[in-house]
Amino acid sequence: MSYRNASLPVKERVQDLLSKMTRAEKIGQLVQPFGWKCYRKLEDGTVEVTEAFKEQLKAGGVGSLYGALRADPWTGVTLETGLSPEQGAEAVNTIQRYAIEQTRLGIPILFGEECSHGHMAIGATVFPVPLTIGSTWNPALFKEMCQAVAAETRAQGGATTYSPVLDVVRDPRWGRTEENFGEDPVLVAEMGVAAVEGLQGDDLAAKNSVMATLKHYTAYGSSEGGRNGAPAHIGLRELHEIDLYPFRKAVEAGAGSVMPAYNEIDGVPCTSNRYLLHDVLREQWGFDGFVITDCGAINMLVNGHNTAATGEEAVAASLKAGVEMEMSGEMLNKYADSAIEQGWMDEADLDLAVGRVLEMKFRLGLFERPYADSERAKAVIGRTEHKQLARRVAAEGIVLLKNEQGTLPFSRKLSKLAVIGPNAHAPYHQLGDYTSPQRREQIVTVLDGLREKLSAEQTEILYAPGCRVRGDDRDGFPLAMEQAIKADAIVVVVGGSSARDFGEGSIDLRTGASNVTDNSWNDMECGEGIDRTTLHLTGVQLELVQELRKLGKPLVVVYINGRPITEPWIDEHADAILEAWYPGQEGGHAVADILFGDVNPSGKLSVSIPKEVGQLPVYYHSRRTRGKRYLETDLAPRYPFGYGLSYTTFEYRDLRIEPAVIDDAGEATVRVQVANTGTVAGAEIVQLYVSDLAASVTRPEKALKRFEKIEIEPGETREVSFVINREQLELVGLDLQPVVEPGAFDIIVGPSSVEGLVGRLTVE
């Protein structure tokens, strides 16, 4: 059989295999059932495949399985019922072996896993969420993280992942803000390219590579009212310049898969949008992978969008638009055959989709290497080097928003330090959504990190939770005040939670002890499907901070959360504020490192933080014609995009643009001197923005085009240079085609979107 001959070209192997398949077998390759339902764990730790899975294989086969190793409250897989890394690899092998040996053609299964910020399986390293990663402004570091994630995932048999998320955030009330890198398309694109390169490597078939899936394609972050899956009201010009740009760059980097978004754009659901899935993705960009739907998306065409009257019509609309695989597989299983019989689509439409799926399986090397290595899984997953990397990513992603009179870093000579707040010692609260069950010793909370940091010092650490993230229970206030009164300084850790109910019980507010019962308290106020009307702290957290402020002691607020927080009172009254987002399993170490100056904060905001929620949208790259100010306040955010403080100071000098005049195909080099004028070493994120002063269509006041993170010693000056060419200067013109128009451009280089040196570049 030619398709088993690895020396033949992939397309020849695909055609040979396709010619041997029945229609039922073809349809089977396009479905992706839930993997955790396909096996049963036995008492000895091994697994057996279920009868339902065997029947599905007999009926035609299964092309892919979703989340075979996924563990969380949705799957019902717990630490007790789940699989260790080596058991997970063996389980995947058991399923794969049965599929290969008990089917007519022996086509291997593609195992797809969630890896938003680490493989969502028991024992895997939990890295910071993408919003933290965006705040690092360090694509090279993120690429290194993605290499670690890919190694851990492939070691257990996972060959594709549903990340990176390349949505551009317009409204941070959206619960999935934490899953995204930020509000700017260039920053998102750089991170997307880093993810593709890190996850896929140079060879998809390698033991450390998994296929990346770009999602959610597209404008998912532009939803009406910040509601998950709501319509996106956006024109084609803005769609191409903002939302599609990160996807285009990641496709150019070689991404193997794309996932359409749930939402509609101008009345057309992304799942059945041929313009997006075929005209743009394949014809314009040359994408050669396959498209997989989000879970239940085809069904939404019938029940939700109502653009199809029947299942057959919905299936045909999706496949003819450019979909190749369905997550869950329910609609294709039920209606694909009858859709052909009723004339909604042709056999050729089915063949095209199946061929693309099979091609990626060959490119992934699944026919030659279908099985995982359990010994490798045991050695690679959760290794020390990955924990150290998680700590570094968290530290680089933490943003210092305020530091009055040098409150931070703390002196190690503190006698007593109070650590207060619902997120000071809540492991799951700092991990974000898409997290598996965790053993307590795997997670370093802020309290853990500070205790270890000061273990050799004379400093006494006093802890109290004070309150919960949600709810109006003030029973913990007395203990919190009692501890804070005795302290020299106070660290209060507040914010949000994307933790689903892992059955960990709750905290006794009066004693601070963990209270594990059958009735756990759910503090979740962020995550998928958890959208809000406000950005204020929930519960009585603000009241707790206000009570602590009355003590007159140095007060440092640490936010752990999945979306921006708008609390004007804290902005005004806290002595220092750290934004840590969800910093992952090593987050407590990273926060402690920054609080005591072992790490100089270098993170900068990848999303603007408004003064009030009524200012939304407040993203920095809005059009010049943004309208007048509000009666109550202006349009400026509290903390702008690109903003972040350091324990040192930087000065920008001598901006030069050479040549100052170019044609539309030319390029110029922008150089600037950056000096560390403080007393400690630090990292600065140098940002270059372009302002098109006059154009045929309205333009943003400024738009980020290039950036670089540099390390500078105290007293040192470094030159940073950027090349500006067509890509940084073009716009989507009146004919919806990219063009560089002649005229003047201001080039702004500085530390944020609101500061910088300005030079002039002219295009003739």
From TrEMBL:
It catalyses: Hydrolysis of terminal, non-reducing beta-D-glucosyl residues with release of beta-D-glucose. Its EC number is 3.2.1.21. One of its GO terms (molecular function) is hydrolase activity. It is an enzyme of class 3 (hydrolase). Residues 684-753 form the Fibronectin type III-like domain. It holds the Pfam family Glyco_hydro_3_C. Keywords: Glycosidase, Hydrolase, Signal. InterPro entries: Cellulose_Degrad_GH3, Fn3-like, Glyco_hydro_3_C, Glyco_hydro_3_N. Belongs to the glycosyl hydrolase 3 family. This is beta-glucosidase. It comes from Paenibacillus brevis.
